[in-house]
Structures are given as C-alpha cells and as structure tokens.
Amino acid sequence: MLGSGAKIRVNRPKKDNILLEFSMTPISKGESVSKYVARSLEVIDKSGLDYRVNPMGTVIEGEWDEVFYLVKKCYERMKRDCDRISTVIKVDYRKGEKGRITAKIESLEKRLKKKLKK
Fold it and tell me: Which stretches of the chain are DSSP H helices?
C-alpha cells in the first residue's frame, strides 16, 4: 500500500508531434480579413502550443489530437459570423523529438551557413 506522499510513475508511450500549417479564410467578408484571422490567433495563443505565423498561414506544433482540436476551435469561432469558410491544412509527421518548428529552420541555416529572414 502506498503512503499519501508516494508518487506513482506511469510509463506512458511517447507521443509523436506533428507540424500542422493551416489557413482559414472567411469568404465574402471583403478584401481584408485580418479581424477574423486575429480571432483565430487569440485561440491559438491561449492554447499554449508553440506556433509561428507567416503571411500565408500559421504553423502549430503538437500532438495530432491537440493541433486538430485547435483548428476545430478556430473554425467554431469563425463560423459564428461567417457563412462560408475556406480552409487549407498541411501536416508534417516525423518520428522524433519536439521542437521541430524551430529545428527545421536551424538545420537550413546551418547548411547555408547564414541566418534566414524570419
């Protein structure tokens, strides 16, 4: 029997991370949709997952279920006042450690022997 201060160590399988890049755009909301994108970024930022914004979308690193759940939350937020939404999703799975969101760029910079524009 374990005492009240004893800790139980559970061997859980290591979860694989993915990089997911997506863009979600409301259709028929005019030329500038930054107000809608900003709301999605608030959802992403509050998640605690590592992410990077680029001019064409957002890259998120995390476990499969985490990142797809986050995309779903962005969709649910956007559909409140958008009747049509276009979404593009690209996923990169590679067995291994976390931190690929920065490691991929660092690897290229090392190979090129220079810093890339960010």
Answer: 34-47, 64-78, 100-112
